[in-house]
Give the backbone structure.
Amino acid sequence: MHSPKGWLPKLLIAVVVAYLSILILLPIAAILQGAFARGVETFLNALSEPQVIAAFRLSVTLALVAVVVNAVFGTIIAWVMVRQDFWGKGFFNALIDLPFVVSPVITGYMVVLLFGRQGWFAPFVEATGLKVAFALPGMLLVTIFVSLPFTIREVMPVLREIGTEPEQAAHTLGAGGWRTFLRVTLPGIRWGLLYGISLTLARALGEFGGVLVAGGGISGQTETATLFIFAALDERQYIAAYAVAIVLAVVSFVVLIGMEILRQRSQVTQ
Amino acid sequence: MAVMANTAATTPLAAPTKARRVSRPWGQWSLRAVALIYLSVMLLLPLAAVLNDGLSGGLSGLWADITRPAAWAALRLSLWTAAVMTVINTIMGVLTAYVLVRYKFPGRSFLNAIIDIPFAIPTLVAGLMLVVLYGPQTAVGGFLKQQFGWQIIFAPPGIILALLFVSFPFVVRTVQPVLMEIDTDQEDAAATLGASGWRTFRRVLFPAIAPAVISGALLSFARALGEFGSIIVVAGNFPLRSQTAAVYVLSQIESDNQRAASAVSIVLLTLAFSLVFVVDFIQRRQEHDA
């Protein structure tokens, strides 16, 4: 890397800075200005409405459950994909990335198709009385689906890097499978796992299209923070919409940046 | 924060050691069963449900549902806006990665940090931010409309802008690590031998980063085809005009027209599925060569 000499590098840097300003920085400035246009107090009042608090509570709950489920299954899947060999492994490996590119609307629609009135699992829904579509369980399924790949994709490269030797050594010394996992594997993949969890959390908090279709966005019942923003825009409550949007964006950003800093620090100390 | 773009990009399938293959205790079998059943139930079963519903009227029924004017227009709008976004995003992504890796300038680390912002910001919020800045009633949006007659929001330019925002990190973050590994010696040598800057880029740099560029571009295209949160805010829901495929699916679900929703979903899923497998293939071939 060198300091730019001549006009071409300066031009290239200017183009990149201008592009990022138009695309990312100016829109952020605009929404901040819009949210605080009527003062900090209006902004804070908007956030302390009971409907807003309920929406945040629901978003956080869904995200936390998705984190736990994806951390457990994600670690198992990553381990199986890295340490085992079997027919169809390549297919499953590519399949894992599918939630990255499936439209969230379709994700929500899948829940409706499976658990709706004419769905494949309609008899199950009727027998147990557990409502899934247009209710919280359906929204939870959507949230788990959209954030499924993150833990797997962060843990896999770390597992590969560690190799099988530490696990085999523990095995030779007489440690059982569970104990080997807790004492050897888990500490090894700790940072990858934590980073995957933070990505899962950020993605789950921001989910919108899927929970809209699967939950219906019923105020006070199935309304998450993103669904609240959507409803508030419809009712022209702009300050409330901007305020919730900013809080969501800041929380997700802090989660990701915080984890990145932690990870870099751990790499320095090692 | 080399996130989504890289995650799909760095998944070589290392073969397990021989020792493992010989001993196969029941614990390993059950873990594999858990992993594969979970993936099948979570990913394959819902896909099957959509396929089953969309094909309930046979292939001709599916075709009729796809070629309905509103459905066809929505698919075309999604495809061309995603294609335009991919071209711009690829050029700007490579340029941004190059500038960040090769030049030292004040504000460089700040620039590097804001690249990941689109991954952190919910896409609905991203769309909202663009409307607040470029909407018809705002200072910037009003100016563009009056001076140049450009309408951005509720029109295709707004859709492209939103897609550019949400997929910006894909190309940058796949190309950046590859560029970092390439020694500047090769570029310097080409320059010493009298090659122009453009020629050096085309002959030396581009072949090295091409697989990463193509993977990043395809992933961002696949991701953009199904984008919803930012689009619904930026483009609204006007059939035949600014209704993208994902928004069309939503409106069909809302009007209880399941088969029409399933038909367009099948098209989107097929495209997404194929692109994911193409990217996987490119990556694996690259691993193989290396």
DSSP finds 14 helices and no strands in chain A. Residues 7-36 of chain A form one domain. The mean pLDDT of chain A is 90. The two ends of chain A are 26 Å apart (CA to CA).
